[in-house]
Amino acid sequence: MKRKTVFPFAAIVGQDMMKLALILNVINPTLSGVLIRGEKGTGKSTAVRALADILPEIDVISDCPFELSPEDEQEAYEECMTALTGEAPKSGDLDSYKRKVRVVELPVGATEDRVVGTLDLEHALRKGTKRVEPGLLAAAHRGILYVDEVNLLDDHIVDVLLDSAAMGVNTIEREGVSFSHPAKFTLVGTMNPEEGELRPQLLDRFGLCVHVTGVEDMESRVLIMKRRVAFDENPADFTAQFDRESANIAQSITKAREVYPKVKVPESMYAEIAKYCLEVGVDGHRADIIMLKTAKTLAAYDAREEVASKDIETASQLVLPHRVRRVPLQDVVTDISAARGRK
Amino acid sequence: MTYTYPFTAFIGQDLMRLGLLLNAVNPKIGGMLIRGEKGTGKSTVVRALAAILPEIDVVEACPFQCNPHSTDLMCPHCRKAAENGPLPVQKRQRKVLELPINATEDRVAGAMDLEHALSTGEKRFEPGILASANRGVLYVDEVNLLDDHIVDILLDSAAMGVNTVEREGVSFTHPARFILVGTMNPEEGDLRPQLLDRFGLSVYVEGILDLDQRDALLRRWEEHESNPKAFLNKWRKRENALKTRIAKARRILPKVKADDSVIRAITEMAVQLGVDGHRADLVILKTAKTHAAFEGRRDATLDDVEAAAKLAVSHRMRRQPFDDVPDHSRAVEKVMDGLRTREQRKKKLLKKESPTESKQDAPLENGCPRERGLRPSPSGSEAAGEVFKPGKAGDLSARTFRMPFPRGKEPEKGRFQKAPALEKRGRYTRISRNQEGGDLALDATLRAAAPYALSRPAGGLAIPIQPDDWRRKSRTHKTGALFVFVVDASGSMGSTLMTQTKAAIMHLLAQAYKDRSEAAMIAFKGRKAEVLLPPTKSINLAERKLRTLPTGGTTPLCAGMALGLKIAKKALQRKRAPWPRIVLVTDGRANIGLDKTRDGALLPLHEEVLAMAGSIGRENHIRSLVLDAEEKHPAALGMAREIARHMNARRVPIYGLQPESIVEALWE
C-alpha cells in the first residue's frame, strides 16, 4: 500500500505557538505533553500528523509489540519478551528496522483494556496460559499519542494516560495480568472548552498549553485555502515544494536534542522563574520545573547553550496560562503577561 | 535505569517528611494521608522513601515476604515449613509498592491461579498486590479517586493486618501488614470520613511561597535532572545517615516510656481540640513515642506530643462545613503553651513537696488493636453475586434509579455518584455472575472454567468453557446529575427569578468538574416554552447562552413543564444522566394552557397543570424540586404547593435564597 501523503508541516499557516509547543515536546518528551484548547477546524490534528511525518526515523526492534529501541532498551526488551512469551529471547544482535514516528490516536470511546493492555483472549483459550495483549500505550511508545477531545474522555482513562505519561512506564495490574513496560510518548490532547472543562488536577499535568483560534487575517485565510486546494489536487508536487523547509525543521529538532543536555542555566534565571510563578499565583511547584525545562528546550531549539531571558518569557506563555489560580466562574487565563501585570 | 530524587534533598514540606519517617520507624502508626495542592512533590517524596527504608529479614522466595522470626505473622506455607526446622533467611530492601489507578480486584487481593488450575485441575491462590506489599509501603496516588470497592479491600487488610480471599472457590489468608500512604488533591472531592480516620497521620501540603526557597528548589532539581547519578552520589552520605537513624530508632522504640504527664497532655489535647473518637489519642501517643525514638530519647516529652499532634489531628478535628483546612498547627501550639506553663508550675510545686518523682509506665504499651466493629463487611465481591441474582436485564439499572441515595440522607461530599455503569463504559472493578448485561470478564470466566479443563471434552481448546462459567464485568463510572431548570419568565416576576436561577446554575457549574453535574435551563413566557441552555457541563457555554434573559408576557406553565419533562426523559434514554431532576421555578399561577380537552370540553387550566405535574410525579426515575416563588401573603393561593404535591417533589420558597443555598437545596 502506498503511504498516504501528509500535509507538510511547513505549509501550515499561522498557529505558531501550537507548532512551537509541539516541536518543544518532540525535542523533550519529559515536558509531559501539550494541551491544545480551541475551536474545531484550526488544524490541530493536521499539525500533529505533519510533525510526525518530518521527524527523523527511529530504530525499532523487529517483532516486538512494545516498539523498543535496539540501542537503549535491550534490558527492557528482555524483560518484556520474557513476560510475554514465558521464555527469554535469544541473546545476541537483535533484528531491527527503521520507521517513521507513529501517531497513535486514542478514540473517545476507547476502553481501558485497549488503552493499557489486557489478557490475550485467543492465546488464553488455545494455550491455557496467560499472556499480555499490549494496548495503545505500548503502540505509542516513542511516538505521539493524540487524544482528540480529551475533556470528553472517561476520567479514569485520562488518569491512566497522564500517569503513564508522567512515569514513562505503563503498569498493568488487572484481569489476572501483572506487567509493566516502557511507555514514553509525547501526549497531545485537544479540547473545546465549550464542551466542559478538564479537572484541575489533569490540567496541571499537561506540561504546555496553547489556545488556538481561527486565523483572522484575510490574507492568511486566503493562503490557507490556496494551499489546501493545491495539496488536494496534487499532493506530491505540493509536498515537494516544502521539502527543504521540512528538512530544516527536522534538522533543528535533531540538533536541539543533541544540544539540550549541554544547556546551562545562568544563576539569575532560577530566581526569575520562581518570581514569575509566585507573581502570577500558581499551585505547587510543577509550573516552576516545567518552565525551567521549557526554557532550556527553547534555548536548545535556538541552538544556544545558555538560557536567555526571552526563553523564560516564551516559556511562561506556554506553561503558565492553565496553571494560574482561578476564582470560580473565571475562564482559563489566555494572556499570561496581563495576568502578571494585574497582580 | 531511573534515579529517584533522594529523600534528603527535598526542600521544605518538613511535616510531610517527618510523618513519613515516623511511619518508617513504627509501621503501627497506621500510615499517612498527604493532602494538598497539585505539584507539591507529594508523589516524589513517597517514591523517595524506598531508598531509606531499613532492610528486613524475609523467608527466602516467599511471595508474602514472611518474617522468619515470628510464626504468628506467616503465610500458611511458611508456617508449615517452619515446623520442619528453621527457614532460609534473606535480607531484602523494604518495598514501596504503587497501586496503579487501573487495578482490578483480582490483582489487588489475589485470585485463583489460572495456569495451575489448568494443568492440575487444582485451585491455588495467586498472590496479588497486597501480598507483595506485606511489610512494605503501599502507595495509593489519588486515593480519593480510587473505587470504593477497592478502598474497602485495602482498609480491611490495613486494619486486620491480614488479607482474606474468599472468591471463585479459593479460600486463602495471608499476612498483609503494610504502611498505607495515600496522596490526594482535595479539589477533586474529599475522602469518606471513615476512610479519613483510618489513616494514622495526615498532613496538608502547600506550595512554598518563599522566593529563596523556591529558587533553591529549582536549582537542586536542575542539578538532579542534568546528572542524576552524580546528584545521588552527592546525597548518598545523608541518605545513609538517615537510614541508620531510622534503624536505630526502631531499636530504641520498644524501650520508650511515656509518663503520666505526657498521657494527660494527650487527652487534654484531644478534648480541647474537639477531636472525634479515641483513635486520635492512641495515634498521638504512638507517634509521640516514635518521635522520641527518632530523636534518640527514651522518654517521650511534651515536645514529642506537640510534633505528634500536628500530624495526627488535622483530619480528625470536627470541622465547620466549607472550612477546608483549619490551621490546626496553630491550634496545637496554643494548647501546648497552656500545658507547658501548667507543667512548669507543677514542677515547682513538686520540688517543694516531695523530691521523689513517681514514674509510671505507660498503660498502653504496644498500641491496642483497632476496633473490629468498624470494619466494612468482608469480600464485597461475593455479595455482588447475591444481590444481583441472575434475572432480567433491567434489574440492575432499576435498582440504581430508584435509590440514587437514600432520601433524607445527604450525599457524600464530592457529590459525583458512582453508578454501576449502564453502558460498557467505566472502570472495570469487580465481577458479577449475572448471566446477562455487561460484557464478558474474560479473566474471571477462564478462572471459573480452568479447574474443569482436564475433565471436560476440550474440542481443540485448552480451556473448554461452558455457559455456566461466564462471568460479567461489573463496571462503575462516575456520572453526575442533570438539573433541568424550568423557569417562569413571564412579565410578573420573570426577571428576578431568571437572574436568581442563572446565578444558581453558574454556581452549580463552577464545581461541575468536581461532581460532574450538568444543567439545562428552560424559560416559559408568552405562548410557549423555550430551551435557553441545553444540558451542559460548560460554564463558558452557560455564561454565553444566558447573557440575555428574555422576560415578559403571559405564563404558559404547562408548556414549560412539558418541555422540562421531555428533556429529562431524553437524557434518561440516552443514558447520559442517570438521575435527571426537574427544578421548577414558579409561583404556580398559569394563565396560558395547552388547550387540552376532555370529553370535548376545554380542561380547566389548573387541572391541566396538576395533570402535567402528576405525570412528572409518576416518572420513577426523575426526581423534582419546586422553588416556590409565591410571596407570603394572606391571599396566597398555594398553587405551587399543590403542584409540588402532585409532582411528588419537595418545595422550597425561593425568596431571599442565595445561589449557594439554592444549590444546597438541589442536592438535598
Automatic annotation (TrEMBL), chain A:
For this UniProt entry, the molecular function terms from Gene Ontology, in alphabetical order, are: ATP binding
User: Which Pfam families would you find in this protein's record?
Assistant: AAA_lid_2, Mg_chelatase
Keyword annotations = ATP-binding, Nucleotide-binding
Which pathway is recorded for this entry?
Porphyrin-containing compound metabolism; bacteriochlorophyll biosynthesis
Q: Which residues form the AAA+ ATPase domain?
A: 30-216
Judging by the UniProt lineage, the source's domain of life is: Bacteria
The cross-references to InterPro entries, in alphabetical order and at most eight, read:
AAA+_ATPase (IPR003593), CHLI-like (IPR045006), ChlI/MoxR_AAA_lid (IPR041628), Mg_chelatse_chII-like_cat_dom (IPR000523), P-loop_NTPase (IPR027417)
| Family listed | Belongs to the Mg-chelatase subunits D/I family.
Sum up the protein's function in the record's words: Involved in bacteriochlorophyll biosynthesis; introduces a magnesium ion into protoporphyrin IX to yield Mg-protoporphyrin IX.
- From the Swiss-Prot or TrEMBL record, give the protein name: Mg-protoporphyrin IX chelatase
UniProtKB/TrEMBL annotation, chain B:
Keyword Ligase in the entry? The reply is: no
Named in its record, the pathway it takes part in is: Porphyrin-containing compound metabolism; bacteriochlorophyll biosynthesis
InterPro entries hit by this protein: AAA+_ATPase, ChlI/MoxR_AAA_lid, Mg-chelatase_DI-like, Mg_chelatse_chII-like_cat_dom, P-loop_NTPase, VWF_A, vWFA_dom_sf
Q: Supply the SUPFAM superfamilies for this chain.
A: P-loop containing nucleoside triphosphate hydrolases, vWA-like
Q: Give a GO molecular function annotation for the protein.
A: ATP binding
Q: Its biological function?
A: Involved in bacteriochlorophyll biosynthesis; introduces a magnesium ion into protoporphyrin IX to yield Mg-protoporphyrin IX.
* Listed SMART domains: AAA, VWA
Q: Do the record's keywords include Nucleotide-binding?
A: yes
> Which stretches does the entry tag as region Disordered?
320-398
Gene3D superfamilies per UniProt: Magnesium chelatase subunit I, C-Terminal domain (1.10.8.80), P-loop containing nucleotide triphosphate hydrolases (3.40.50.300), von Willebrand factor, type A domain (3.40.50.410)
Similarity comment text for this entry: Belongs to the Mg-chelatase subunits D/I family.
Name of the protein this chain belongs to: Mg-protoporphyrin IX chelatase
Renumbered to this chain, the Basic and acidic residues biased-composition regions fall at 320-342, 351-374
Which residues are in the VWFA domain? Answer: 482-668
Tell me which UniProt keywords the record has, alphabetically: ATP-binding, Nucleotide-binding
Source organism, top-level taxon: Bacteria
The record's section on Pfam families has:
AAA_lid_2, Mg_chelatase, VWA_2
Tell me which PROSITE patterns the record gives: VWFA
